[in-house]
Amino acid sequence: MKKCIWCRQDENKTTFNKTAHIVPQALGGEQICENVCDKCNEFFGSHFQKFPSVETIIKEAFNISRIRFLIHFGEIGKNKILTKPTSHFFDIDIKKRKFELKLAYKLQKGYQEKLCRLLKKGIYKMFLEETERRNNNALDNQYDFIREFARYDLGDYPVFYYERTSAVILTPVELVKRPQFIIGGVGLKYLVNEPCFMEFEFLGHVFSIATTRYWAIAFDNYLAKSEKAKSGFFRGFIPLNRFNDFDFALKILDN
Ligand SMILES: [Zn+2]
After folding, report:
1. From CA 121, how far away is CA 56, in angstroms rounded?
2. What tens digit of pLDDT does each residue of 148-160 get?
């Protein structure tokens, strides 16, 4: 019997007819999380007042990076992965390599912070669904804080963004066409896998998130290990507070 990892309701109480993509389909995501009910699936895809949906924000935030990689791999144009890149939030000019947040959004007071909160919720949402797909354990109480935050807008949890020192980003074309997380401890030696934090690379970006609501106790220990593994590859990290805090346009590639 299916049970939703977000609202904990099972097939007796809710329906599971629609397909829940972990990474938005509009971003090329193909992996599915079976245990997301239709209501919760719809929630992540719905906008609220003048703010975009969690799904839209994930798509918008990472689409620019994906486009830059697709240009690099010659995958934009007729009969290619993407015919013509478009964006709701960004002005895109491929020839001029211009990818900028539209002025209308830049100027709204507090908008950057709101977009950032949605982005953080989206990153946690993808993490929990991916955890369910891989380990089938997303209903563990340990993850209640992610349900509260991503689904019910309660509390606030950190997303750390690691800034690279060089423009060398080894992202295989397959992971650009069909984006997935690369998780610490599996492939990349600069990613660490600690009990209270999870690091991952996604479309060329390295993030870490908390895997327990008590993350603060383990933070210093985590940071020491993480910084050691990243020396030479990354300058340091920033906690995401504003949408513009992360290099969504992969400007580092222009250097
Ligand atoms: Zn649900």
Report:
1. 12
2. 999 999 999 999 9
C-alpha torsion sign, points 163, 68, 86, 122: negative
Q: Which run of H or E residues covers position 208?
A: strand 205-210
Distance 139 CA to ligand 1 centre (A): 12
* Gap between the Cα atoms of 239 and 207, Å rounded: 10
- Specify which residues 182 forms β-bridges with: 201
Residue 66 CA to ligand 1 centre (angstroms) = 30
Distance 33 CA to ligand 1 centre (A): 12
Of 118, 146, 152, the C-alpha closest to 210 is 146
Query: pLDDT tens digits for 217-232?
Result: 999 999 999 999 999 8
Q: Is 5 exposed, middle or buried (0-12, 13-18, 19+ CB in 10 A)?
A: buried
Q: How far is the CA of 43 from the centre of ligand 1 (A)?
A: 9
Amino acid making up residue 116: C
The pTM of this model reads 0.93
Please say whether the beta carbons of 161 and 206 come within 8 A.
yes
Whole-number Å distance between alpha carbons of 188 and 170: 10
